[in-house]
């Protein structure tokens, strides 16, 4: 069982305790469901750690079990859950800008940044037009508010750290990320020009894993490592913020293993040029 699942199960156990310790007398799941106007199955899923409660769910639960003072404890437990697994549904309720601002704060407090991306250009190196295409498509997928221009400005702010003295960016990308047509061809061509232009920047080491490279592990999902204190990894339903040292060590080993297959400098430039030609750019 993962740390997240354990924490959700613990929250469910706490909810059960509140139901059974109701000052007016122990409530059954059916009785509590009737008070809340919920299906009894929701009570069961929450108590058994099969569903993540919302803020409103927890506040209503505390009131319905006649223990409103328990609300603060329940919400603190929920914040602990969300600090590790941040669902896109909740994060994007008001759009993408808030998510970008949260990551921007991590860039600002970090000296060393490592990244691996297999399917798109790393956000810290994206052009405005490329980022705009990405945000537009993800907003459509997640059915979230489209605050695209604000999100693009927030993402481009990340790049200020590329020019900060003492910062070190170590970025790896699969060649497929250079070829994925997630934007119009002319936007991708400009994005590839941007990549070629940052090779040699003293704060940045850019490695590309070519299609023909020998690989020790599959070039799977992308992730970012901030110093050695935080990993951010994305899935389709949520963004994972990982601060457990053992897990961070796993990501560091993964990054080091992928790095062994990468090319740098002039060789990386050649791979970028090959991708440009594949899209019809001169």
UniProtKB/TrEMBL annotation:
Residues 15-74 form the HTH cro/C1-type domain. GO terms for molecular function: DNA binding. This is Transcriptional regulator.
């Amino acid at each position: 069982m993962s740390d997240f699942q354990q924490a959700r199960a613990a929250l469910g156990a706490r909810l059960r305790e509140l139901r059974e310790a109701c000052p007016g007398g122990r409530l059954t799941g059916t009785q509590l469901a009737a008070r809340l106007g919920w299906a009894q199955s929701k009570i069961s899923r929450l108590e058994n750690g099969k569903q993540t409660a919302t803020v409103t769910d927890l506040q209503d639960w505390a009131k319905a079990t006649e223990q409103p003072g328990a609300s603060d404890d329940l919400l603190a437990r929920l914040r602990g859950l969300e600090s590790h697994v941040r669902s896109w549904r909740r994060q994007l309720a008001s759009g993408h800008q808030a998510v970008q601002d949260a990551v921007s704060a991590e860039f600002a407090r970090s000296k060393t940044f490592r990244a691996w991306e297999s399917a798109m250009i790393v956000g810290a190196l994206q052009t405005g037009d490329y980022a705009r295409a990405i945000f537009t498509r993800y907003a459509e997928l997640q059915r979230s508010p489209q605050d695209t221009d604000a999100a693009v400005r927030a993402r481009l702010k990340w790049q200020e750290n590329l020019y900060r003295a003492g910062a070190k960016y170590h970025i790896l990308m699969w060649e497929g990320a250079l070829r994925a047509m997630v934007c119009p061809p002319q936007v991708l061509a400009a994005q590839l020009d941007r990549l070629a232009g940052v090779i040699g920047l003293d704060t940045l080491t850019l490695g590309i894993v070519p299609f023909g490279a020998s690989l020790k592990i599959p070039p799977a999902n992308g992730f970012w490592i901030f110093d050695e204190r935080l990993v951010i990894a994305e899935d389709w339903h949520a963004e994972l913020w990982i601060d457990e040292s053992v897990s961070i060590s796993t990501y560091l080993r993964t990054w080091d293993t992928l790095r062994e297959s990468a090319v740098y400098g002039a060789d990386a430039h050649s791979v970028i040029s090959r991708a440009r030609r594949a899209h019809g750019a001169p």
